[in-house]
Amino acid sequence: MTPTHFAFSSAFILGLTGLAFHRSHLLSALICLEAMMVSLFIALSLWTMQLNSTNFSASPLLLLAFSACEASMGLPSLVATARTHGSDQIRNLNLLQC
Amino acid sequence: MDFIMYLVLFSMILGFVVIASNPSPFFGALGLVVLAGMGCGILSWHGGSFLSLVLFLIYLGGMLVVFAYSAALAADPFPESLGSRWVLISGVIYLVGVVVVSSLVCGDWYEVIWVVMDELVDFSVMRGDMGGVALMYSWGGGMLILSGGALLLTLFVVLELTRGQSRGALRSI
Amino acid sequence: MSPLMFSTLLLALGLGSTVTFSSSHWLLAWMGLEINSLAMVPLMARPHFPRAVEAATKYFLAQATAAAMILFAGMTNAWMTGQWTIEMMTHPLPLTLVTLALGLKIGLAPVHAWLPEVLQGVDLTTGLILSTWQKLAPLALLLQLPHGNSPLLIILALSSTLIGGWAGLNQTQLRKILAYSSIAHLGWMMVILQYAPSLTLLALLTYIVMTSSIFLLFKLNNTTNINALATSHTKIPVLTLFAPFILLSLGGLPPLTGFMPKWLILHELTMQGMGTLATITALTALLSLYFYLRLSYSMSLTMSPNNLLTSPLWRLRPHQPTLPLAISATSATMLLPLTPAAFLVR
């Protein structure tokens, strides 16, 4: 395990912990998802660069395109939720619980 | 040189700690900007200048949009700033956790050589990642089409999710 | 939603799963999963209700987290072993991570909490897609993984059958009951995954047949809770007589189709010398059987207080095509003689 490997692994796990445990705003959850995708982007490009396998270095761009899809998927659901539920607090999303 | 690298890595983790400790979305966006900038530093240090540029442009451009949304939608009367009690406590807990885990796995770290890509090739005009990314237009054409299709699909999805009287961002008067 | 948009989204749904089926590389598999969940969310938010929007948002959050975890596991494997192939993920740490993430995607028990809520918020057609087609791509990935002799799958499976049976006891909403039944059936698929993957496929196939027939039946009946089931006799009398067989087939009683995967799985488990596990799994199926029995009791074994037993004319005839329901209901009850003998003679 190199320090960079440790750095992005702990970064991803921090983002996942923040997403899983305490979120008050839906927007904060989306920001956490974005941060997780950034750490994956950094990891993927560092993998191609450290192994000098430059043929693979188009794949971080593809990852970035898909994470942009995900982010732009999250914002309209945020808008729709804010319109139907009044605010973007996650604790307002309680219509469906048992 | 190694010292700056460690500093940049630590600053990136600090940005993640800011995000993970649940402040208001303004400060979360700030942490995202910090970690994207530090990620650019890491990538360019390792020789991926083009990927670093892409990350910088897309994330800082995209974060502007997210920041606008957060300013428009998440209007807290009492925002949780970075100095608030629970934000500070959980941030400190996360930092201590990262430091403890890193000191636990520190013995397993093998010797660090920050190999910069194409460092051993003298007088190279092109960076390796540029050549690699350009392969997306020849051999990786299928993946390019797939990503383009996914982006187009996202356009339709966004249109479909926010269409109508009761779900769009602007209220119908 | 316009038909053009609807068909585009359905095509993208199919495309995403197909990309995942045909990929051997983690990045491409992740892309397929992303396209799949991208196309699913507007289908879920199709009716303009707060419940549907909330279900779509929750589904998006769970799926995006699971997809990011899958990619992180693939990345960790690549950093540790230099290998991106799905079948070569041999390091135990990323294997555990990706099993948990795929469990989150299909709703296995310790990470199942989104599934009943999301299924409660969508309409029955989307619920049918969610509980059949959306399970296929993550299960294809789970089948390709090189599980050694991992206790993680056993833990996931046992807790799924237990929680799927236990938490469904308390429900009166049909879609939540179906969600818990889905969790329990997925637990049955997981318990055999590392010993006989073909049995997992068989269980998945029979589950898809049975659950699509029950979803189509409720759709035809237009019911979403147990109370409304009481009117089904005046509406569709023949299907009301037939419904307990479908429900008990889901529960796994002998002369019906649902007995086949449970029988073969228990047989295989005892052949592997795990009698205790087989016993516990069979006992947890009784919990699920209780709520299937309750559904069939309130649907067709009791006569609701009604003074005329013929079909009243004030209900309009349903416009839904009934051929899929006929086919799936027939095969959900009568496929037991087609049990592959190859599983029994070994």
UniProtKB/TrEMBL annotation, chain A:
Catalytic activity: a ubiquinone + NADH + 5 H(+)(in) = a ubiquinol + NAD(+) + 4 H(+)(out)
Membrane topology field: Multi-pass membrane protein
Location within or outside the cell: Mitochondrion inner membrane; Mitochondrion membrane
GO molecular function: NADH dehydrogenase (ubiquinone) activity; oxidoreductase activity, acting on NAD(P)H
E.C. designation(s): 7.1.1.2
Pfam families associated with the record: Oxidored_q2
Gene Ontology CC: one annotated term: respiratory chain complex
Transmembrane parts of this sequence: 6-22, 29-49, 61-82
Entry keywords, A to Z: Electron transport, Membrane, Mitochondrion, Mitochondrion inner membrane, NAD, Respiratory chain, Translocase, Transmembrane, Transmembrane helix, Transport, Ubiquinone
Top-level lineage group: Eukaryota
Record carries keyword Cell wall biogenesis/degradation: no
Any one biological process term the GO annotation gives: ATP synthesis coupled electron transport
InterPro entries named among the record's database cross-references: NADH_UbQ_OxRdtase_chain4L/K, NUOK/Mnh_C1-like
Function: Core subunit of the mitochondrial membrane respiratory chain NADH dehydrogenase (Complex I) which catalyzes electron transfer from NADH through the respiratory chain, using ubiquinone as an electron acceptor. Part of the enzyme membrane arm which is embedded in the lipid bilayer and involved in proton translocation.
Similarity remark: Belongs to the complex I subunit 4L family.
PANTHER family: NADH-UBIQUINONE OXIDOREDUCTASE CHAIN 4L, NADH-UBIQUINONE OXIDOREDUCTASE SUBUNIT ND4L
Protein name stated in the entry: NADH-ubiquinone oxidoreductase chain 4L
Protein's organism: Solea senegalensis (Senegalese sole)
TrEMBL record, chain B:
Entry's transmembrane regions: 6-22, 29-47, 53-74, 86-110, 130-159
A matching Pfam family: Oxidored_q3
Subcellular location: Mitochondrion membrane
Protein keywords: Electron transport, Membrane, Mitochondrion, NAD, Respiratory chain, Translocase, Transmembrane, Transmembrane helix, Transport, Ubiquinone
GO cellular component: mitochondrial membrane
EC number: 7.1.1.2
Coiled coil: none
Reaction it catalyzes: a ubiquinone + NADH + 5 H(+)(in) = a ubiquinol + NAD(+) + 4 H(+)(out)
Record's signal peptide: none
Family assignment from sequence similarity: Belongs to the complex I subunit 6 family.
Protein name: NADH-ubiquinone oxidoreductase chain 6
Organism annotation: Solea senegalensis
Automatic annotation (TrEMBL), chain C:
A cellular component term, taken from the record's GO annotations: mitochondrial inner membrane
Domain NADH:quinone oxidoreductase/Mrp antiporter transmembrane: 23-287
Membrane topology: Multi-pass membrane protein
Enzyme Commission (EC) number: 7.1.1.2
One BP annotation, GO: mitochondrial electron transport, NADH to ubiquinone
Catalytic activity: a ubiquinone + NADH + 5 H(+)(in) = a ubiquinol + NAD(+) + 4 H(+)(out)
GO molecular function per UniProt: NADH dehydrogenase (ubiquinone) activity
Subcellular location: Mitochondrion inner membrane
Domain NADH dehydrogenase subunit 2 C-terminal, residue spans: 289-341
InterPro entries: Complex_I_Subunit_2 (IPR050175), NADH_DH_su2_C (IPR010933), NADH_UbQ_OxRdtase_chain2 (IPR003917), ND/Mrp_TM (IPR001750)
Keyword Amino-acid biosynthesis tagged: no
Keyword Transmembrane belongs to the record: yes
Coiled coil stretches, renumbered: none
Keywords noted in UniProt: Electron transport, Membrane, Mitochondrion, Mitochondrion inner membrane, NAD, Respiratory chain, Translocase, Transmembrane, Transmembrane helix, Transport, Ubiquinone
TM ranges: 59-80, 92-115, 152-170, 177-195, 201-218, 238-257, 269-293, 323-345
Family: Belongs to the complex I subunit 2 family.
Purpose: Core subunit of the mitochondrial membrane respiratory chain NADH dehydrogenase (Complex I) which catalyzes electron transfer from NADH through the respiratory chain, using ubiquinone as an electron acceptor. Essential for the catalytic activity and assembly of complex I.
Protein name in the entry: NADH-ubiquinone oxidoreductase chain 2
Organism: Solea senegalensis (Senegalese sole)
Name of the gene encoding the protein in the UniProt record: ND2
